[in-house]
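I hope you will forgive my troubling you with a question about protein structure. The matter concerns a single protein, recorded as an amino acid sequence and a row of backbone structure tokens. Please examine both parts with care and let me know of anything in them that strikes you as inconsistent. Thank you for your consideration; the sequence and its tokens are set out here:
***
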Amino acid sequence: MREDLSMPAAPAIDVDGWVCPMPLRDAPNIVMGHGGGGAMSGELIEHLFLPAFGAAADAGMGDSAVFAVDGTRLAFSTDSFVVKPLVFPGGSIGELAVNGTVNDLAMAGARPLVLSTAFILEEGTALSEIAHVAEALGTAASAAGVSLVTGDTKVVDAGHGDGIFINTAGIGVLDEGVDIRPERAAPGDVVMVSGDIGVHGIAVMSCREGLEFGTTVLSDTAPLAGLVSAMLDTGADLHVLRDPTRGGVAATLNEIARAAGIGVSLEETALPVPAAVRDACGLLGLDPVYVANEGKLVAFVAPADADRVLAAMRAHPLGARAAVIGTCVEEHPGMVVARTALGGTRVVDLPAGEQLPRIC
């Protein structure tokens, strides 16, 4: 009798309790919004991945996991990069692959030490293009002070990839007493951003569909560990650090507000938005607060420490345009509310998916 080698039917997933936007309920397949870092991504993780992982899952849900080995506190993070196009004004997927993981480690207060790198290459991609990306990745690693210590390469059939996808994972070490995590945000905390927002997303979008904005916007991709080190050197107790990548500043503030159970009151006029980004967003119908960044951080700092942390940020090249953009409040816990230039208020909600897909 012939053995049946067919795959067993996939178990049905019960989505009756899901509270995500309609695409998750109506579509049995992945849509682009699932990868946007917003509400749809969160629902996918909470209702599919975590239950599927079962007891093996550690639901800390941070960009980096912090743990101790023989008394040494380490941070570990991994990230994948699928940006389109591979090269854009101010950088490439190579720089993003290093800086993205380095920054996730830095947001936990860790000093990045080593990275792994894995390339998924599409058959037919020019070797010269791969070499350009690889060289950019190596240069970025040297600039960030990390070593590339292990890696992997796979090739997929033509038409089943998009040139180059990259995964990096990294390990960093934390000094004694550093405790930076979203749950530590508290009423009264001062909310800061390290510089101009929305730059990376617009730089990538400028390369798509032949769009021209009248000026060249360069990506802000950069390693932030040095800036974080300067902030820690002030002796301030930094409560929260996050790099506002997918979903921009809006998604980051919402995630922190919900994790800590506090409200965030945002001053819309205080947001440092360059004129070129504002004009491009107006043309495309986008809100800069939702546009991705790759070289900026958001910090939550106790009021007594705010001035010296802001001064330290502005003294660093990557924080020269740092600004206070809001405060933490007891009202409207789990929500971000912005005061507009006209004196009104609006809710800045967690985006469902992503305004600009595949920007990192």
Summary: Residues 1-11, 18-25 have pLDDT under 50 and may be disordered. The chain has three domains: 22-54, 65-173, 182-347. Residues 22-54 form one domain.
